Amino acid sequence: CAHTVEADCLADPKECVWDATKSPPCSEKPCNYDSETNCLLDPERKCEWKNVNGKDTCIPIPCFYDAQLDCDNDDKCIWMAPVCPLVNVTMKCEEKKCLYTAKAECKADAACLWKNNACTEQPCAKYEEESCCDHVDECTWGISVTPSVCIEEECAKIKDET
Q: Which among 160, 61, 147 has a CA at the least distance from the CA of 110?
């Protein structure tokens, strides 16, 4: 991927990517692995194996920034303290949740809630581990969806609606 012309870079069979803000601007596509093992063994540990459009593939982990400025410059990310565990709290870059604009997509995601014509994160969805979820009175670990997520208890929902 040692191209100096964008068209040549993007046409390269190695799946190169062009970023005019970097030097050199043409580089190999990150996480360009064809097996789950190689993907998860990425030397920088910035890749994950996911099903994308029905095909298992290796993709960069979203919002994998060490610096707040880089995180803040990505509109899909937010700089925040992890919700759990509450000890040794270190700020880090997290992927924003529930960025759907369509009601059907939002409602299909168990971690999201369609309210006032906008998709927002369920109040308990921030607890990504069962042990953390179980320590919050209004939340319960929802095993009726795959993957399991922390959801608001039915009684808490009824209380909020009245």
A: 147
For 94-124, what is each residue's pLDDT tens digit?
A: 888 899 999 999 999 878 889 999 999 888 8
Task: Give the Cα-Cα-Cα angle 71, 87, 98 (nearest 5 degrees).
Answer: 40
Locate all alpha helices (DSSP H) within the chain, ordered by sequence: 6-11, 36-40, 68-72, 103-108, 130-133, 154-161
Which pair of tokens denotes residue 5? 């012309």
Token pair 């009245």 is found at 162
With vertex at residue 106, the alpha carbon angle to CA 58 and CA 143, rounded to the nearest 5 degrees, is: 75
pLDDT tens digit sequence for 57-77: 999 889 988 889 999 999 999
Query: 161 by DSSP, 3-state: which?
Result: helix
Give the span between the Cα atoms of 44 and 51, in whole angstroms.
Answer: 21
Contact 81, 59 (CB under 8 A): no
